[in-house]
Design goal:
The chain has a two-stranded antiparallel ribbon. By secondary structure, the chain is mainly α. The protein is built from five helices and two strands; from the N terminus they run E-E-H-H-H-H-H. Strand 1 and strand 2 form a beta hairpin.
Length: 139
């Protein structure tokens, strides 16, 4: 599994998460009226009534044109937003906690605490505390 840019160039390998992903070159040149040409057409359609494939048309119609489908899409989008917000809050808390730890470590070092004691209190690796001490000595 690879990350692929817009030109189809492989950027980097990525971890497989179990989803099945199919990539289409929507600007490709397909035989006129072939199934692939019709699928590309359907993927560009705004109005489900203009689609060729029944399965795709019915699914798009359900989510775009019925009250139940629109409500479901709103629910799905709200869940995605909530998950994103929760992740952002967690990342923000972790970053704030790390910054607080770094500030505490610097203060401990300024006040003459031993590297071993600072490592024990902060749960930071010895190398990290040593680097912070070096930065303090250079400033």
């Amino acid at each position: 599994m690879y990350t692929i840019d817009a030109d189809g160039q492989i950027i980097a390998p990525v971890a497989f998460d179990g989803r099945k992903i199919v990539y289409f070159n929507l600007k490709g040149h397909y035989e006129k009226n072939s199934d692939m040409d019709k699928l590309v057409h359907d993927l560009h359609c705004v109005n489900p009534e203009d689609m060729y494939f029944d399965v795709l048309r019915d699914c798009v119609y359900k989510y775009k044109c019925t009250e139940e489908g629109r409500n479901k899409m709103c629910e799905i989008m709200q869940n995605l937003i909530n998950e994103s917000n929760a992740k952002s809050r967690a990342e923000g808390k972790a970053e704030g906690s790390h910054e607080t730890t770094i500030t505490m470590v610097k203060e401990m070092l300024k006040n003459g605490a031993s590297l071993e004691f600072v490592c024990k209190c902060s749960h930071l690796p010895y190398e990290t505390v040593l680097k912070l001490q070096s930065e303090l000595l250079l400033s």
